[in-house]
Amino acid sequence: MSDTVIDLPADKPIITFTRTFKAPRALVWKAYTEREHVARWWGPRSIGPVEIIEHDFRPGGSWRYVQDVRDAGKVTFFGRFVEIDAPEGYVNTFGFESPFASTKGKEGRETQRFEDMGETTRYIGTSHFDDFASRDAVVASGMESGAREQIEQFANYVRELGQ
């Protein structure tokens, strides 16, 4: 059982992901935002390896990651970093292209927040959708298990870094 909480509020077309990491915010921020660290935890490893093609972490900078999904081909995830308020959080866009679906031109918006709690850090990620149908389609795609796996990978990586 993961310590990650995933919430789908009835009154807003969003998904929130909340997790407390046993590490100070400076370490969590570094691991979450720096290219060499992102490559170590991003994307659920159970479905295939990830290659970081681009990661220009600055306002207006782009990101592009490719996951080689076993038996399905390559899925490209992409977006831009919109706002950065280090180390409290940032806003980015998010889209993907794959052999079985394309959202080109349909980038969503995400916010990442990191609350300093001393020796621990509370992470709150929010995915924003235009409507409930879009949110619910993402949920129906099996997103939850992949999100839980990725956040758990991040928790394990931060634990390694802190040792």
Automatic annotation (TrEMBL):
Q: Which Gene3D superfamilies match?
A: 3.30.530.20
Domain Activator of Hsp90 ATPase homologue 1/2-like C-terminal: start-end pairs: 22-158
Instruction: Kindly name one Pfam family recorded for this protein.
Output: AHSA1
Coiled-coil regions listed in the entry: none
Query: Do you know which InterPro entries this protein is assigned to?
Result: ASHA1/2-like_C, START-like_dom_sf
Q: Which family does it belong to?
A: Belongs to the AHA1 family.
Q: What protein name applies here?
A: SRPBCC domain-containing protein
Q: What is the lineage of its organism?
A: Bacteria, Pseudomonadati, Pseudomonadota, Alphaproteobacteria, Hyphomicrobiales
